[in-house]
Every structure is written in structure tokens, then in C-alpha cells.
Write a structure and sequence with these properties.
With 505 residues, this protein is of the alpha+beta class. The chain has 23 helices and 18 strands. The chain has a six-stranded mixed sheet, with helices on both faces. A four-stranded antiparallel sheet has the order 15-14-16-17. The radius of gyration is 24 Å and the shape is globular. It starts with a strand and ends with a strand.
Length: 505
């Protein structure tokens, strides 16, 4: 499971949406969230007062909301907007400074929000913009400190490194080799995203205005600590693999594979949407980010490698829905409300969204679609018109072609069935960099003869990452009994490879 959170825009004010997991909170969780519900109700009433033109009432309601949630930068920003609308530009700037002090780092919204017009005439606003590089640096330092203090165990040594090109600061509990492999994976993913979806992110000069993201790659113990702190005991065992919370500019991933790729693509997607001043619906967010969970390497220019998204266990779900005549029409999928998408049969929704974006990628139209979508977002935020524009067909024709493509898509192995090719070992999920060998036969074992041992983490097969059980099974499912493969593994802090002849399970 992956998790995402976002901030939406309403009336050009900021309106945070809660982190949404692929689970439904229980009744006790909802009761604990009552203060948040009251704060949200006050915000809704404030927005309604603005619609009526009653700015004093809107400010009163926002100040009441601030008393309930004094650390939320969104409220400070919204009060600044109301003060600016009332013609109090200097006072609005003071509230903007407070918003920045509490974590607001969106220069793009700041400089184009029409409700801040009066504030932008003030010298204080100009000084705020001139200080923006220092603001971003201070925000990063604070984010790193808070992440360390609240989410990591002091006895664990974390590697801290910054990647200027990715605008990411890492805190990693993994060994040096595993960490560098993960960084290289994200670098390839960034390049693929720029080439195929977000070309504007390739402008490194413009990236200087993007806020830094802290990427926490924790120990299993610290991951559990984060999970309980973020979602409470009732959701701590819900199978959540990680999240990117845009307001916090913090990504947490349990594994270095599908979860990290998924959440990092949320980072890129949110950077693009933030620059554009747009809010994209849940099916696009999760469809795009699920797309990059499973991929294969392909040759690129100058002897390098890129990636190509491939069929996965998610597309298997979509194929089964199609066979059962339960695949959602595209119009229904694209207009499914967020709460229903993430709480009512979420695996089916994620699977169908990923399948359609894999279809766009396979037809070479993903970049064309995103360009058309972001260009005409105001006219159709669902993305359906952009699909028609990119593919040059009407929606019924696209629907028919998509379903035929999905029907012909190969089914991916989800388990190693008896008689199918396997390593001849038992594995458990591991600690994030690869499934771990739990049991290995004492005699007549090709894996043992090749040098593999109990406790080894299997990190790749023939150079293809196997960071979780789904990846391992999918890649082994491409082979036949008798094939010889190169198994990359980690034993403690030592990384090595072994040649193993696959036998029947």
C-alpha cells in the first residue's frame, strides 16, 4: 500500500486535505479527529463568508480556527489573504511572515495569488521574496531537525546527504551500497519523469524556487514509530508502506523499491502542480505514481539506461475486473470522489488508474496527455478531454481500444506455483532493501551451492531490482526451470552476487 497527502486550493486560499490512506479509520479515530473536524468546519464557514463578501466575519472564523490549530501555516496564509482583501497590505505581510515561520514555502502561489494584490505592493513583500533562498534553506534545516528528533532513534546512525538536482535531502538508515543504489534509482526516475511527464522540472534554474523535500529511509523500528505517530495505533498495522505529505515536504518509505518510487513520483507531480497552481484529482495522482512502481531497465543514449513501466500485480487486478465485467468506465473512474477512491475497494481503484496510465505510456501519449491536461485544466480538471486530445479519438473509441489493450496485456506472476521456476529457498519480506532468505535446504540446494545463506537479502535478479516480494515473484515468473540467473544479495554490510540455476518449486 502507498499513501499520499495534498493541499488543494479553494477561492485562491489554501485548504489542506488530510492524509488519505487505503484504509478506513475506525470510529475511535474519527472521534479523536473531532478538533480537526471543528477546524475544518470553521474554515468552510470562513470561505463561505468570503463568497458573501463578509470579510470581517471570515477573519473572525479563521482566527477561531487558528486557536484550535496554531501550528498550521495554512491558517496564517488565509488570514493574510483576508487582510490583503481588506486593503491592509502591511498587516497581510506580517501574517505571511508568520505563515513562512510555520512552514509555508510555496513561492509560486505567493507571487500570483490575486487575493494578495495589496500585500504585493508593500516593501515587506519584496523583502520576503528577496529572502526566499534563505527561507528555503532554513525550512530544510528545520525539517531535517524535526524529522531526526521526532522520527528516528538516537542510537541509529543515519546517513545525511543532499541531492541538489533532485532537491532532496536524505536521511537513510540503510548501508552505503543499498543507499547509493536507491539514489541512482530515483535519479533515473527523475530523468524519466522529465522526459515523459514533467518536462518543466528539467529547468534547474527554475528548480531553485522549489522547496526541498526530506526523504526518510528508516529502520523497521523507526518506521513503526513514524507510523504510530502519523496515523495512531488503530492504523499502525494497516499495511501502509509509506507516504509523501506535501505540506510537510517529507517522504517516508519502508522499502527502497515500489514504495519509494511511488512516493518520490508524488514529490515530482506536486512540484509540477504547484508551479502550475493546479490541484489534480486522486485518480491522476495515484495513477501516475502507481505507474512507476514496477519497471524494467531499457538502453538509453550514450550507453546509459532508462526505465519502462511494465505490467504488475495491479494490472492483474484490472484484468480480472475486466473479465468479470466490473471494470469502471473511464468517466466514472475520473470522477470518483477522493474519499470513495481511497476507502471503498481502494485496491481496485488504484489498479484501474495505474492500468490506464500504463496504456497511455505504452501508446507513447503520456507526455502529450499531461501537456494537454495542464494546459486546459481549468476547463476540465478530470483529464478526460485531454485524453481525447492526446489520442485523437472520442472517449467511447478510446475506451474500446483501452479494454482491448488490457485484455491482451500479459498476466504477471503473483506467486511461485508448484513446478514453476524458483530459487529453492523460503523468503520473508525483509527490512526494505530486498526479501530475506528465511530457510534454505541443507543439502542438494543450488542456492546453497552457489553461496547463498539464511539471512541474505535478495536485492536483484539479473540486475533487476527485487526490493519487495512482489518484484521478486514477478521477475522469477519471467524465467523457466533450468535458467541460470545472477542473484545480487546483501549479507550484513557486504554486497555480492551468485549464479543460481533455477529449479522447480
Amino acid at each position: 500500500m502507498r499513501l499520499a497527502a495534498l493541499t488543494a486550493c479553494a477561492l485562491a486560499l489554501l485548504s489542506p486535505l488530510a492524509a488519505v490512506a487505503q484504509v478506513e479509520p475506525d470510529q475511535s479515530t474519527r472521534q479523536e479527529a473531532d478538533p480537526e473536524a471543528r477546524a475544518a468546519a470553521l474554515q468552510a464557514r470562513a470561505f463561505e463568508a468570503i463568497r458573501r463578501g463578509d470579510l470581517p466575519e471570515a477573519e473572525r472564523l479563521l482566527r477561531d480556527q487558528l486557536a484550535l490549530d496554531p501550528d498550521n501555516f495554512v491558517i496564517y496564509y488565509n488570514i493574510a489573504c483576508v487582510r490583503s482583501l481588506r486593503g491592509e497590505g502591511a498587516d497581510a505581510c506580517e501574517w505571511l511572515v508568520k505563515a513562512v515561520e510555520h512552514g509555508f514555502v510555496d513561492r509560486f502561489t505567493l507571487t500570483r495569488d490575486p487575493q494578495l494584490r495589496a500585500a504585493r505592493r508593500e516593501d515587506a513583500f519584496r523583502r520576503l521574496i528577496e529572502a526566499w533562498p534563505r527561507i528555503l534553506d532554513r525550512h530544510l534545516e528545520t525539517n531535517l531537525r524535526v524529522t531526526r528528533d521526532r522520527l528516528t532513534t538516537k542510537t541509529t546512525a543515519y546517513t545525511a546527504e543532499r541531492d541538489t538536482r533532485l532537491r532532496v535531502a536524505f536521511l537513510s538508515a540503510f548501508d552505503a551500497t543499498s543507499f547509493e543504489q536507491a539514489r541512482a534509482d530515483l535519479s533515473r526516475l527523475f530523468d524519466w519523469g522529465v522526459a515523459n511527464v514533467f518536462p518543466e522540472l528539467g529547468d534547474q534554474a527554475a528548480s531553485a524556487d522549489d522547496a526541498w523535500t526530506v526523504v526518510l529511509l528508516p529502520t523497521p523500528r523507526d518506521f513503526t514509530k513514524w507510523l504510530r505517530a502519523e496515523y495512531g495505533p488503530s492504523l499502525a498495522a494497516a499495511g501502509i508502506g509509506g507516504s509523501y505529505v506535501h505540506d510537510q515536504k517529507r517522504l517516508v518509505a519502508q522499502d527502497l523499491g515500489a514504495t519509494l518510487r511511488h512516493e518520490f513520483f508524488h514529490v515530482l507531480h506536486w512540484r509540477s502542480a504547484t508551479r502550475l497552481g493546479q490541484d489534480h484529482p486522486i485518480w491522476i495522482q495515484e495513477g501516475l505514481c502507481s505507474l512507476v512502481e514496477d519497471y524494467e531497465s531499457v538502453a538509453a543514449g550514450a550507453g546509459g539506461t532508462s526505465l519502462r513501466p511494465v505490467a504488475s500485480w495491479r494490472t492483474n487486478i484490472a484484468k480480472r475486473l475486466l473479465q468479470a465485467n466490473r471494470l469502471m468506465p473511464l468517466k466514472q473512474l475520473a470522477t470518483t470522489p477522493r474519499d470513495r477512491f481511497t476507502s471503498t475497494n481502494p485496491l481496485a481503484h488504484y489498479a484501474q488508474a495505474r492500468a490506464f496510465f500504463l496504456y497511455l505510456a505504452d501508446t507513447g501519449k503520456l507526455r502529450d496527455w499531461y501537456a494537454a491536461y495542464t494546459r486546459d485544466h481549468a476547463a476540465d480538471p478530470t483529464g478526460l478531454r485531454a485524453i481525447e486530445a492526446a489520442l485523437g479519438k472520442d472517449l467511447p473509441a478510446i475506451e474500446a481500444d483501452y479494454r482491448a489493450w488490457l485484455r491482451a496485456l500479459p498476466t504477471v506472476a503473483e506467486q511461485i506455483k508448484p513446478g514453476r521456476a524458483g530459487l529453492g529457498v523460503e523468503v520473508d519480506p525483509g527490512t526494505g532493501d530486498g526479501p530475506t532468505i528465511a530457510e534454505i535446504p541443507p543439502r542438494d540446494s543450488a542456492a546453497r551451492a552457489a553461496g547463498l545463506r539464511r539471512g541474505d537479502a535478495i536485492t536483484a535478479i539479473d540486475g533487476k531490482p527485487t526490493r519487495d516480494l512482489n518484484e521478486l515473484v514477478r521477475i522469477l515468473g519471467e524465467h523457466q526451470v533450468g535458467d541460470e540467473v545472477e542473484v545480487s544479495f546483501r549479507r550484513g554490510k557486504t554486497h555480492a552476487t551468485a549464479r543460481v540455476k533455477l529449479g522447480p518449486r
